[in-house]
């Protein structure tokens, strides 16, 4: 209560937002309350500006969602492209893809978190889900090739291996928060995913 | 539209629900629309009965949530108790716990799905989150003991290993749907988690 009058006085002098900062705060809010549960009114209140000031930057809530999930998806697809160019066996390309995906996830944590919670109620969400499925297909194909080349266990369906692999990667959004001086989490995930948690003698 | 009049005519003759069937349909609805996004009115509409008919079975929406998440948590804690009683090394108890947890997840899929989406806005949710943390602690302690016994890789923080392990297990809610004649999914998860996806020569 006591801060409200001050907020009102300072609003005029508040430096303007750019699209990037509107987007970041929108994504934070979507992750807290759900995309459906957040209105442009809520976002305006959080930013301390009017709704029409938001519409100056972006035409709709759906467009904010599209920008956000594309930020995550474009990162993942860029890594998939780089992985294709890795010289060597499919298993090496797969390991590159896993490490790179962890990197994207850590760098773009709020965006990937939003992406992974998308349910498919709107056109933007359905299109994001379609791109996710395309990414899953790329992973499953790499796993299948690595099986053929004798590097990945052949006793599990490649699609299931791919899903469990990325189930582990994606679970990072639930608990991982980057801290300085951390062990490289991509390294940890790759070790456990490829070689398991059991110690071999 | 065309089915509405019929639904209205048959309501009277509809066999009564018991608490169990009300709970199952509530959980389905919570998973579809989110707990916050589902009202008792929505549930009444889905069941084709009045709100007061629901209150005959259960005092509140929060109580439905409590029953649902406890169904998941009680299953997981029962497996943790059984795991403790497994004769042998910590790594064997851990493997028992992983396989058993997959079993609970598959058997009680909608309940575990709801549990894993709980965010902590109400007393019931906060209490469920506290029990989840307690379960995570049990897993991390088992991992730590197995490291001390030389069976689990010592180069990763036991809490991180525990989280990645259950990140993989919990990811099943996103895609796994039990089908008759399936390979034992608990077996697949245990193989990949403990021994990795890489084939050893």
From TrEMBL, chains A, B:
Report whether Oxidoreductase shows up as a keyword of the record. no
Q: Which Pfam families match?
A: TetR_C_24 (PF17932), TetR_N (PF00440)
Cite the entry's keywords alphabetically: DNA-binding, Transcription, Transcription regulation
Kindly indicate whether the keyword Magnesium belongs to this entry.
Answer: no
Gene3D superfamilies cross-referenced by the UniProt entry: Homeodomain-like, Tetracycline Repressor, domain 2
Q: Which domain of life is it from?
A: Bacteria
Q: What InterPro entries has UniProt attached to this entry?
A: Homeodomain-like_sf, HTH-type_TetR-like_transc_reg, HTH_TetR, KstR2_TetR_C, Tet_transcr_reg_TetR-rel_C_sf
Q: Mind listing the GO molecular function terms for this protein?
A: DNA-binding transcription factor activity; transcription cis-regulatory region binding
Q: What is this protein called?
A: TetR family transcriptional regulator
Q: Which organism is it from?
A: Prauserella muralis
